[in-house]
Amino acid sequence: MGQGHIHDFNPGIAPSGLFWTAPIPPDSVQLNFGQVQAQMALQNFALGDTIPVVTPPTPVTVSMVINWSGQTAELDVKDVVHQFAGHYRECSATCQWSASEAGFSFVSAAASTSVTKFAELGMERNGKFF
Amino acid sequence: MVTSNGDLVRRLLDGSGRHAGHAHIWEGALSRRQFVQAAAGATAAGVVVGSGLLTPPDVLADDESSTVPPNPIPFGDNGTHHFLPGRGKEVTTITDFVGFVGVAQLTGTGTGTNTSTGATTPLNWSIDNRFIIGKYVGVDGQEHTGTFGVF
Predict the structure, then answer these.
(1) Chains A, B: CB contacts under 8 A, how many?
(2) Is the pTM of this model over 0.90?
């Protein structure tokens, strides 16, 4: 794929172990589960660039629009080992995004050129709700 | 029929509902007030669950503090509290959760710019980005609703 991983944008791992997860504005997600359509749109969302490795990570702002659509499969899962269950609708997705940090900026090609490796929408429950 | 948030949560909780950035670049190639405001301005697609219509702010109604941190799932790949994307894998990264999730594992191309020199470079990217919308038990032991992204 390339010669090196030169940037990695994420919100970090919390001391609790919460992994790459951050609150986002409620209106940043639009979801029509029945039609298997969703969009997540964020503007100038603050993350950290963890490559090269520096402490603290380099501040970066990221804007993105991800669209999900076109069901390709549907399945129910009940995993008693990992204590979660869900109903999932696999689909395709596209993304167009950009990022900006000190000394560097990035703009992706058109959303239509992105390639889906895996995408799905789901209803999921775990832990005390399992 | 418009399904209420309570109906949705009950269906998810009791299982009666049938339908019950992170971004890499590679070199080379709600509060009630917010709910009311959002609902009043919402004209885009909502959440359709069965025959019910919900918007994400509906799911987030009745919560005065959606920023209480959640707890991580107890399991994960490679020693993390996070599963890699794939069929049958748990999408959410937070535990004691019930709600909606989406995951997009994608690749693509783009252009990087050294903003000091103006030099541009073609770059490849990959993402595993997710959203998580629903009810969870926060680190305070209380139930909350919230919207989260995984990047």
Answers:
(1) 307
(2) no
